Amino acid sequence: MKQAKIQADDIKHAAQGKWSDLIFPSFGIEVQWKKKTPCPACGGRDRFWYDDKNGNGDYFCQQCGPGDGLSLIEKTCTRFTFPQVVSEVASILGLSDSSTITDEDRARWAKEREIRKKEQLERERKRQEQIARKAEGIFRNAYLGEESLYLKNKKVEKDPKIKITHDGNLLIPAVDLLDGKIWNLQTIEPDGTKYFIKGDTNETGEWETGGGRMGGLGFMIGEVQPDLYDDHNICVAEGYATGMSIHMATGYPVALSFVANNLPKVGNVLKQKYPNAQLVYCADDDSAKDDTGRKYAQMALDITGGIIVLPQFKQIQESIA
Ligand SMILES: [Zn+2]
């Protein structure tokens, strides 16, 4: 073991900067730098974080803990003992010629990786369907109330397609704007607290948070007139209160993206469904913070064309669709 330890240290030096592009792929392992992904060893959805922080292929997995590149290979390719992993990596780096990895191994690993990926996508799809059923059920069966303090404080009307519950919460369906299917549900409490469908326990009893579909989902305040084949305006805003204020002031339909980073995706969907529409992005003014709203509105504009306006409808930029 002492021999292997010394060798492991030698390897770590030679392996710096080569983990993600050279060494891991040789074992059929794929990592993405600083992104939450499934764990190559134990799967999951977003439990794995690769940052290579010490240059040793370092990662953290919420399930199987932290480790370096050698330990990740040992955990993922269970055929190898640790000394064997060390010797294989040495041969990949040209430090020895004792490799026992065959093309068959590589082919098998690639296949296993494909299967893991497919299983992952399938789990994700099931989870989204599960959240969609939950959202649809909560919305359909809501015990209705009269008043939302949130709407009252914000001085905005209730769109006929949203609901107020008996405890004063607003329920806003997050739908696929192409076909109208409900995939998620935003709740806004009287004090303005907002959340989507929360986690649940899965079949093995683990607590899972979120997992519902979000990207590209929106909610349309007002109606886009189906017979409008000529130029017409559709506004796009993040939150309900802002969106409804715009609708009340202009009479235009307003698509909500719920969160800033969903603006480009919603814009894209609207452009598919209403190719003649001019999209008016009503960016939230977060200039006091980091300008997130404007940044994503600009990204959306680059994709779909249209106009960006800031609050008070001060026009800051125009581009031709
Ligand atoms: Zn893991």
UniProtKB/TrEMBL annotation:
Coiled coil: 104-138
Cross-referenced Pfam families: Zn_Ribbon_Prim
Organism: Acinetobacter tandoii DSM 14970 = CIP 107469
Protein name according to UniProt: DNA primase/helicase Gp4 N-terminal Bacteriophage T7-like domain-containing protein
Residue ranges occupied by any DNA primase/helicase Gp4 N-terminal Bacteriophage T7-like domain in the UniProt entry: 34-70
Transmembrane segments: none
GO molecular function terms attached to this record: helicase activity; zinc ion binding
Alphabetical list of InterPro entries matching this protein: Phage_T7_Gp4_N
Taxonomy, superkingdom: Bacteria
